[in-house]
Amino acid sequence: MSTTISLDLDQPTMRRLAHRVADIVADHLGTLRSQPVITGLGRRDIDALLLQPPPRSATDFETLMDTLHRRVFAYHAREPHPGFLAYVPSCPTFPAVLGDWLATGFNFFAGVWPVASGPNGLEVAVLEWFREWIGMPAGTGGLLTSGGSGANLTAVVAARHAAVGDDGARLARLTMYTSDQAHSSVRRAGWIAGIPRDQIRAVPTDDELRMRPDALAAMVRADRAAGFNPFLVVASGGTTNTGAVDPLNALADLCARAEIWLHVDAAYGGFGTLTARGREALDGLGRADSVTLDPHKWLFVPFECGCLLARDPRRLADVFRIYPEYLKDAESSGEEINFADYGEQLTRYSRALKVWLSVSYFGTDAIAAAIDQGMDLAALAGQLVEAAPSLELLSPVRFGICCFRAHPDGIDDPDALDALNERILAKVNSDGRYFISSTRLRGAYSLRICVLGYRTTAEDIRGLISEIER
């Protein structure tokens, strides 16, 4: 006779295990500065540590935690670290982490209203905050997503459906437009949505790497003359490369005249609207038909949390709403929102809780001050670069991004400069204090720092630039 094993735990055991995990996370976050910013192993070494059959019988929790410490937690980039200045960091607040834990612990099913009216009502409230912050009109709606990539894909699919519905023949003639600086997810979204790859146009940019409205207008005219159907422009509200913001008002005017859907990917910079200079830089954002935001960037919540806002959320429901027989009981009668109607996920957890808890705990003034600090520190980096005779800026400092390179006297050969900066990047990233990334701007290899984390200080920036100079 087999022994019945329960998967349920008693309350004292749950508390003990939960407290242990809380201690581990608090110890990790509280000692970040003393840890290396990144450590890693190759695939073969990791496989040797982790590839093994699952245990047939139970394992003590402390043994499991020890295994994770030695074999998993030891090998990763610590994005909340003050020296993590690569890519676009995520630096969540601790209340946001707790909000994520609560959402997971309660296991809310946030796809339809009847089974999660409280959590879904909280998502409606959070989306209303976002709408007001970026200046979109009342009636705007949307949903929280896994990230900016998912939000961009949802927008492209909705725009495609609005343009041609289910007409496959017309789909083959669609063209969409985005900057040559746009995030890779925009082009990928077009591919997934069925737009022919050679009909996703890369619009040239100006000297500050912003989309040129004149070039866009010419491309739209040429495509229409050739029998194509221009249906979507995707502008950037802060590019990943340099933080550039496309001329949103001019693009909104152009799209209104041409009757083309305007989507703005503001995953990076959108929450800059909480600050005065961010609102100025992003003027016109609220005029878009849809906007992507990423709370797991500059709103300081954990992965995964993106957002799509649509001026007319009915356009999302037009393409995604479906009710088979097993969902008829959950169908919305009107006022209630089923977020499954607005995107590809039916089963989705409540991402709103971590946003609401963090913003409510600190208040928007503190969040805005942290965003301002990131912009100040990037500006400081730019000033230090300009003051250093062996360094040069390669683009204007915008939002939290500074792109530059080493360019000592006597070295002007492009290949030699690229090689020098590649060596500098490898050296800086090898000592454990800083982690920076690279990009290419007009063909030149560029060192790139992105300051989003609220733990980074002026001393960190000074130390980094000094190390690069050395």
Describe this structure in words.
There is one protein chain. The chain has 17 helices and 11 strands. It is globular, with a radius of gyration of 24 Å. It has 470 residues and is α/β, with parallel strands linked by helices. It has a 7-stranded mixed sheet, sandwiched between helices. The N and C termini lie far apart (72 Å). It has 2 domains: 99-362, Type I PLP-dependent aspartate aminotransferase-like (Major domain) (Aspartate Aminotransferase, domain 2); 364-469, Alpha-Beta Complex (Aspartate Aminotransferase, domain 1).
CATH T-level fold name of the largest domain: Aspartate Aminotransferase, domain 2
Annotated CATH architecture of the largest domain:
3-Layer(aba) Sandwich
Secondary-structure element sequence?
Answer: HHHHHEHHEHEHEHEHEHEHHHEEHEEH
CATH class of the largest domain: Alpha Beta
Q: Could you state the CATH homologous superfamily of the largest domain? A: Type I PLP-dependent aspartate aminotransferase-like (Major domain)
Report the biggest beta sheet as strand number plus sense, adding barrel if it closes: 7 strands, mixed
Low-confidence stretches: none
When the domains are counted, the total is 2
E-strand count: 11
Cα shape: globular
Output the strand order for the largest sheet: 1-7-6-5-4-2-3
- CA-CA gap between termini: 72 Å
Q: Provide the structure class.
A: alpha/beta
- Count every helix, treating DSSP H or I runs of 4 or more residues as helices: 17
Strand percentage lies at 5-15%
